[in-house]
Amino acid sequence: MNGATNGSVPAGATVVETAARVRSGDVSASDVVSRTLSLVEQLNADLNAFVHIDTEWALELARDIDAKVARGVDPGPLAGVPMGVKELQAVAGWPCAMGSTLYSDRIADHTCTLVARAVAAGAVPIGVTASPEFGRASYTASALHGVTRNPWNTDLTPGGSSGGSAAAVAAGMVPMATGTDGAGSIRIPASYCGLVGFKATYGLVPRGPRHRGVADNDHYGVLTRTVADTARFLDCVCGVDDYDRASLPAPPFRYEDRLFATDLSELRVAFTPTLGNAPCDPRVAAVTESAAEMFIAATGARRVPVNVTVDAACGTAFRALSAPEVYGQVRAALPGRDMHPSVRRYVEAAEALGPDALVHAHETRAALVAEMAVAFEGFDLLLTPATQVPAFPAEGPMPTEIAGQPVDHWGALAVTFPFNLTGQPAISVPAGRVGGAPVGLQIVGRRHADALVLAAAAAFEGMA
């Protein structure tokens, strides 16, 4: 990217670039934020990425950052970086509807740990990004907010459920925006919008306070344009949170420092477009396999056979584990309530759920965790498509057929949700295009191998 002149930061500047310019005093946070707000005003009407903007607080935070710089105080690694916040994540005083008409008037009375830590590191939240109702679809449309569109092609979806965040970053409105990933909801929008979307090891990024996490599948994270930006954000927010029982300690190093200090030669790398039984659009399979081969050749890694088959029963298990969480969100307004089709399917699953099905779901997840542990004895990284299909129409519905095979809701997420069940780190990085729209390569590692996954993603990014 070309450097800015005349005290400005160019549109499309990265998190790392923006923070460096603000910290040095070369550009003011107030100017960065003002420009961002102008871009949102110009671009948002066509995309519907943001559903709420807080100009007053954003400019107040920016002025505070500028005052720190003037005093010689470092405002933090995210200094002056504008940020979108997915509407499933609370910010005190902001709307907290979760994409649902049930909560259309609700205002958050607390700020989630993720956002609070980002602000402490200098980030400037400017507003709420759109999500489908309760984040339960891989396209972003709701009765409350309407349809969110992909900046690459506004006829297409930016994915879901972090679609508003992805659209905002891909359009250049903000350098980063938060997301949640319960079945692929960071990685899928990253794939469809040509971004970096990382789902860290379960518990590394805290989700408190008040996140119920009934299914133990949900991960918090961020969407950015570069792997370095994602690593910078991760270094600022990860670590133990007393409000999140699953939270893990931060490592004794910075992920950003490890990106280009990790030896990737002789890594054992496996590629599969299907995880054994997930149908994949042949165009997506071809693009991602070519990307995988390029990565292997350029790093000196070794391609090894794949010995993974994700049992189709895992989709049923995922539904059984997740359905009670959705039911808990809508039970106060169930009779006759109009719901997003995906939400309705979850509710119906919850209403039909019995103890045998719940026990079987836990047993199925345990078996998948064991299978992946055994499989990863044979390789260090597993590469797959980040999505099985290219971006589809913005209004939906989710795919019901892939490569000539019928799929249900979970079958359309079959290369992403298994790693929510296992809690392994997985990242989507841009791999190419199909029909003019981006598709991503997914890189998966063992649990706690987050630094390796990020380093591999950075190496691949450098080849593009």
Describe this structure in words.
- This protein folds into 2 domains: 15-258, Amidase signature (AS) domain (Amidase signature (AS) enzymes); 268-312 and 363-463, Amidase signature (AS) enzymes, CATH 3.90.1300.10.
- The protein is globular and about 60 Å long.
- With 464 residues, it is α/β, with parallel strands linked by helices.
- It contains 14 helices and 15 strands.
- A hairpin with a 2-residue loop joins strand 12 and strand 13 (405-406).
- The strands form 3 sheets. An 11-stranded mixed beta sheet has the order 1-3-2-6-8-7-14-15-11-9-10, with helices on both faces. Strands 4-5 form a two-stranded antiparallel ribbon. A two-stranded antiparallel sheet has the order 12-13.
What labels describe this entry?
464 residues, Amidase signature (AS) enzymes, 2 domains, 11-stranded mixed beta sheet, 15 strands, globular, disordered N terminus, amidase activity, Amidase, AS_sf, amidase, EC 3.5.1.4
- Characterize the main sheet: 11 strands, mixed
Question: What proportion of the residues is helical, as a percent range?
Answer: 25-40%
- The CATH superfamily label of the largest domain reads Amidase signature (AS) domain
Strand order in space, largest sheet: 1-3-2-6-8-7-14-15-11-9-10
Question: For this structure, what is the CATH class of the largest domain?
Answer: Alpha Beta
- Mean pLDDT score, rounded? 94
What overall form do the CA principal axes indicate?
A: globular
What is CATH's topology name of the largest domain?
A: Amidase signature (AS) enzymes
Alpha carbon gyration radius: 21 Å
Q: Total number of helical segments? A: 14
> From the helix content, strand content and strand pairing, which structural class follows?
alpha/beta
N to C succession of SSEs = HHEHEHEEEHEHEEHHEHEHHHEEEHEEH
Assess the beta-strand content as a share of residues. 5-15%
How many strands? Answer: 15
What are the segments in which pLDDT stays under 50 over at least 5 consecutive residues? 1-6
